[in-house]
Each structure stands twice: as C-alpha cells, then as structure tokens.
Amino acid sequence: MEFGKKLYRLRVERGVYQKQLASYLHVSVGTISNYENGVHSPDLKTLCRLAAYFRVSTDYLLDRTEYFFPIESLNQPLVNRYTTGAIVNVLLGLSPEGRQDLVKYLTMLAACDKNGLPPLSAVQPGPTHVPTEPEPRETEESAPGED
Question: How far apart are CA 132 and CA 117, in angstroms?
Fold first, then answer.
C-alpha cells in the first residue's frame, strides 16, 4: 500500500484531523494533504515523527512490513526476563518442524486459555489490522465522518 494511503488510513482510524497532525509536525494542512495524496513524501525526520505519533514502525509506514508496532515493543518484557524480541529470536532459530510444533502448541494454549483468547490464526495476505476507508480527498481538511 502506498505511503499516502497508509497515512490517511492511520489518521482516520485514530480519529485525527489533518489540522491536528499538521500542528504536531509543524507543517501546513496542505502538506499533510500532499503526503496523503502522494504528491510529496516526508523527509526522514518527519517520517520518524509520524511513526512516533501513530506508534507504528517506520518500516510499517514504508510498507516494508505488516508488523506495525514500534521497534521498542520488541524490548517489552513478557514473562520473567524474557522480552518480545527474545521470544521472536527463539522462534526464528527453530527448525521448520519446531515452528510447526510451536504453532500447534500455541493453538492449543489459546483454545484452553481461561481468558477466552481467540485461536491462533494463519497469516493472511495483505493488511489485516487496518480497516478499509475511503480514498484521500483533495480537500484541505478531511476528517472521519466528514462528507
């Protein structure tokens, strides 16, 4: 997905007006509109500020990954002294058979969890976490629910 469409969808999903985002970035509303419509791209500093504002990774904004959490989330402690990143590293170090066994085990744990977690689902092509929204409009100020 193009950067502008991804930015638009994040903004609409979070209920943020172009004016609010422009104020945070110290740019004009027209600049935000140009980003969303693919006329211009942000510089690196602005890209990093956008990622921080929406709490996503720059790789997600640039469509390099569907993993949308900021990179800092890999340092988040899960249990004891294990972080999310440490668990991912162990997972990536497993053989294909070991990965398959882990998925089976995780599916069983999710099914048995007393909090009623949904079962582990397979990876689906395309983004699954960003709802479909209308395309960016050419107006200076667009926001959720405006027509």
Answer: 25
